[in-house]
Recover the amino acids of this structure.
């Protein structure tokens, strides 16, 4: 995990457990860095204006101001576990990092008796599903989709030919066979195309804004991976 991701994750961890605190040692173990690194990261966050405070004492640590945490949620333990199971299926899907963060927030924001019951119940639920491949380049694609920017990709098509493409991201599609797909406007083909993520060897988010397209342009027929108008490259 690079430092930028770790700084974000530190805030999310403290937000999830607020108003409780986490010691530097606990945070260091969680993120597999030294205590000194955690202290430097916390100091950087504080200097940037994040309201993190140090609680003194044996059981003290760092705590995020309660104004940045969630109020208690009125989920039943059963509802919380249902959400956990649903989010558990996203571990190798788009925005998986954010799904884990959302799950931590949900359980931490529940009243303690219900939260404890939800954790106990969750231990009795197991997902025996082989994770679907989710290539590393997908994080770059996620950001381009969020920022609405053009992507530059190196793509190997069905015939094994690799080309450099500029594409305008549309939607992610998960299909049978353990593959994820990106449906996008391809400037090379001047048409909507479907790109299999594991065939994208390189992806770079450009500074160029991606034009807004109507959602129906990127609506493939998902069942059986039989796409409608968009063609699979």
């Amino acid at each position: 995990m690079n430092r930028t991701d770790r700084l974000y994750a530190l805030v999310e961890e403290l937000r999830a457990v607020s108003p409780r605190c986490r010691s530097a040692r606990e945070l260091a173990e969680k993120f597999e860095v030294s205590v000194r690194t955690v202290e430097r990261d916390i100091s950087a966050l504080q200097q940037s204006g994040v309201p993190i405070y140090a609680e003194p004492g044996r059981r003290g640590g760092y705590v995020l101001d309660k104004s940045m945490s969630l109020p208690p949620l009125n989920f039943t333990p059963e509802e919380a576990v249902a959400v956990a199971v649903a989010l558990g299926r996203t571990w190798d899907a788009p925005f998986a990092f954010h799904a884990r963060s959302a799950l931590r927030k949900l359980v931490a924001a529940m009243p303690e008796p219900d939260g404890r019951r939800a954790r106990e119940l969750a231990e009795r639920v197991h997902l025996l599903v082989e994770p679907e491949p989710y290539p590393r380049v997908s994080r770059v694609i996620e950001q381009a989709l969020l920022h609405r920017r053009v992507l530059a990709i190196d793509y190997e098509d069905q015939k094994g030919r690799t080309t450099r493409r500029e594409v305008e991201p549309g939607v992610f599609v998960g299909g049978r066979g353990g593959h994820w797909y990106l449906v996008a406007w391809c400037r090379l083909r001047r048409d909507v195309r479907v790109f299999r993520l594991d065939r994208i060897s390189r992806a770079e988010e450009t500074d160029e804004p991606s034009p807004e397209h109507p959602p129906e342009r990127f609506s493939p027929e998902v069942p059986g991976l039989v796409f409608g108008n968009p063609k699979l490259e």
